[in-house]
Amino acid sequence: MITQPFAVEVSVRGMNIKNLPKSIKGFFGKYWKKWTILVVLAMLIYIGFIFYQYVYKPIYQLREVSAQRFEIEKNIYEQIMDSYSKVEENINKTINKDYSDPFK
Questions:
Q1: Is 9 a domain residue?
Q2: Is 62 inside any structural domain?
Q3: What is the pLDDT confidence band of residue 41, given thresholds at 50, 70 and 90?
Q4: Would you say 80 and 86 are in contact if contact means Cβ atoms under 8 Å apart?
Q5: H helices present in the chain, as ranges
Q6: Do 15 and 23 contact (CB within 8 A), yes or no?
Q7: How far is it, in rounded angstroms, from Cα 52 to Cα 32?
C-alpha cells in the first residue's frame, strides 16, 4: 500500500529533481564571489552605456547648429515691401476715414 499518492522519483540525466533546489543553492553558494563580480560588472557596463548615450554623445559628438547666411534677391524683397506698404496704406485709409453717425 502506497501512503503518498505521488511519490514517484523523477531523474533527469541521473540528477534527482527533489535535490535540485539544494544543488542550485550549493552552486551559487560555492561560486558566490564570481557571481557577485559578474553582476557588478554587468551593472557597470549598463551604467556606462547609459552615460555614453545620454551624456557623452550629446556633449562631445553631436555638432551644434551653425547659422548660415540667408540672402534674399533684391527684386523679391522690393515686391514684398511694396505689397506691405500698400496693405498698410489701405488700413490707414480705413482707420482715418470719417464715417457719418447713422443715429443723428
A1: no
A2: yes
A3: very high
A4: no
A5: 20-30, 32-51, 74-96
A6: yes
A7: 30
Any domain includes 59:
yes
Range of the structural domain that residue 84 is part of? 14-95
For the chain, the average pLDDT equals: 81
- The reply to whether the predicted model has a pTM over 0.85 is no
Task: Please say if the pLDDT value at position 47 is more than 90.
Answer: yes
Host H or E run for residue 16: strand 15-16
pLDDT band for 85, please (50, 70, 90 cuts). very high
Give the number of domains in the chain. Answer: 1
Handedness of CA 7, 10, 11, 17 (dihedral sign): negative
DSSP conformational letter for 103: T
3 band by pLDDT with thresholds 50, 70 and 90: low
Nine-digit cell string for 51: 552615460
Say if CB 17 and CB 11 are below 8 A apart: yes
The region that residue 11 occupies, defined by phi over 0 for left and psi between -120 and 50 for alpha, beta otherwise, is beta
